[in-house]
Amino acid sequence: MRPSVDALCRRLVRTGGLPRIGAAVDCYNLVSVSHGFPAGAFDLSRIAGDVAIRFARDGDEFTPLGEPDAVERPRAGEVVYADAAGVLTRHWNHRDAERTKVTPQSRDVVFLLETVDAETFGAALAAAARELADLVGPHAGQVTEHVLDGERRVARLAGDVPLVQHPEPARRQGGVPGGGGEPADVPAARP
What we know:
Layout: H1 4-15, H2 23-35, E1 39-43, E2 51-55, E3 79-83, E4 86-90, E5 95-96, E6 109-114, H3 118-136, E7 142-148, E8 154-156, E9 162-165, H4 167-172, E10 184-190
Parallel strand pairs: 2-9
Antiparallel strand pairs: 1-6, 2-3, 3-4, 4-5, 6-10, 7-10, 8-9
Helix pairs in contact: 2-3
């Protein structure tokens, strides 16, 4: 599965522009294409319980963004973001879910940016996160930034929702740095 940034770049080349979805989504799409990092977002009001970065399990289900009638079953061992109700993203955050999509009515949003090589790309990822925070900041009541990596595995998001990185993905991907997505910069915006 190709990361979302790949699809955005191909569309930009083909059409000369990025899709216009809504201010929040347009901001993270712009940052994703500008910096080359996969980006995603969740509407926190649609989250059920904790959000965990973990390996997919047998029985996990995922409804892709824009395909409300489709149900995919991630392969066991695939890295996903999930909550108590199901899978929120596939292949780290390469593909978002319909259930937690960000809309103009969203008030508590978490944005995700990732790299698979923190040692090489950590500074560039931090710059992308700052740019995203700068873009959404004027439209938000509060913006906070969190980094998950080999040492920091939990971030408290708006509404005290924890984002938990389970240790298994980092170990399986070879540890940190470069542990299959660490660090993940997580700006959370609350308008």
